[in-house]
Design brief:
Rossmann fold; five-stranded parallel beta sheet; 55% helix; 13% strand
Length: 198
């Protein structure tokens, strides 16, 4: 089984790239989805988050964790983000390893880990290759605004918590520029898929 990481800066289009790989037969594990599942199911993590951030991370109507409120609190500064990451990343990594083992036992040929912090967390050491999706900053910012309406300040704060794009590209095994249509992106992903040793 070939294990491919797909990453990129916020708004670059890594999820769209992963979706195309699904269409080509890959099994994708989305680390953001795994993290959300853990956040909403692991009581001990919620208690630690409440102790650190306070009740502002809860939905005022339901009293339950609100992932948008948590993101707003966590992205305020690097130390907040670091606290959230050290709580979640070991559990996300373990869940991803379990998914990998299951996929291998099921005869999956291409297992994709879609994650924003592959290099930052050292996860690339457990993968066979990493694909980095890139796009100009203005395009990335517009995409993020269109899908979630976050302010330019929030975009910059979140972008600055990841490795700079140039650093990711330098560490990548494959690079795809996503500066046009979805069809263009898919063609570029197909070209890389055809190079994979699977």
């Amino acid at each position: 089984m070939f294990k491919l990481g797909v990453t990129g800066s916020i708004g670059a289009g890594k999820s769209a790239a992963s979706q195309r790989l699904v269409e080509r037969g890959a099994l994708v594990s989305n680390s953001d989805d795994v993290a959300k599942s853990i956040l909403f199911s692991d009581r001990s993590i919620l208690e630690q988050l409440l102790h650190y951030f306070g009740s502002k991370i809860l939905d005022t109507a339901t009293g339950k964790l609100d992932s948008k409120n948590l993101a707003a609190a966590a992205f305020q500064n690097p130390s907040h983000q670091a606290f959230l990451n050290q709580l979640l990343h070991p559990k996300v990594r373990e869940a991803t390893r379990q998914r990998m083992l299951l996929a291998m036992n099921e005869g999956v040929k291409l297992f994709v880990v879609d994650a924003p912090l592959i290099f930052e967390t050292g996860l690339n050491a457990e993968l066979d290759a990493v694909l980095v999706v890139t796009a100009p900053k203005e395009i990335r910012q517009q995409r993020v605004f269109d899908r979630s309406g976050i302010s330019p300040e929030d975009f910059i704060a979140r972008d600055n918590l990841q490795w700079p794009e140039v650093q990711k590209v330098a560490a990548a095994d494959y690079v795809v520029v996503n500066d046009g249509t979805k069809e263009n992106l898919y063609r570029r992903i197909d070209a890389i898929f055809d190079q994979l040793p699977i």
